[in-house]
Amino acid sequence: MRGGLEVPEMSWRFAVAAVGLSALIFLIGAPREVHAQSDFAEAGSDLDLSLADYLAKAGPDAQLIEPGKLKIDDYHMSCGKRPTVIDPNFESWGGAYPGYVILNPDRLKTLPTPVKLFVYAHECGHQFIGRDEGAADCFGVKRGRRYGWLKEEGLAQVCDFISNLKGDADHAAGPKRCEMMRRCYLEAAPRAARN
Question: How far apart are the C-alpha atoms of 183 and 162, rounded to whole Å?
Answer without folding.
Answer: 16
